[in-house]
Amino acid sequence: MATRRICLMFCFLLLAHFTSQQKSSKKRNSKKDSENSAAIEELKKQVNDIIQEMNLLKEQQALQTVCLRGIKVLGKCFLADPLKKTFHTAGEDCSAKGGSLVTPLSGYENDELYSYVRQSIGPEEYIWLGINDIVTDGLWVDQTGTSLRFKNWETEVTLQPDGGRRQNCGVLSTTANGKWFDESCRAEKASVCEFNIV
User: I need a labelling partner for 158 at 20 to 30 A (CA). Which of 7, 8, 44, 145 fits?
Assistant: First the structure.
């Protein structure tokens, strides 16, 4: 009987020991799972950071390619497209390339643009500017809807803009030394896209 009690007691002790080992094993596994989840999340974050950095490098490389094919002017690159298109099509094409239709912000930029267009497209051309008065006649804005800070309208001969509701998009003329004219948005003109340098 004493032997039986000792065996029974021994069995209870073994049972208690295995039960406590299983609980501590589960705690260790739970702790390991938690550590693994944290490590996985950290790796995901690092992969996302690398992807973002690669995309930025690709964008910078593409911009450098654009600058090599065009010209660099005050934190921007200009890239000419001699193919004649409507204002809206030209704007969409520039957007698809990551830029916008050119909008000179100073006399210097306008002069550089004028020279670039004469050399790259031709001496007797008109190019679309990224300006219009489509929403409110007479209120000329850039493609973000902001009022123009700089204007270079031809005012000596034709008193531009003079087209009223028929001519709501702006062009730069190389025959008029870089002066601006209003034009029908449906006309087809060459264009220059501008890209901000990051």
Answer: 145
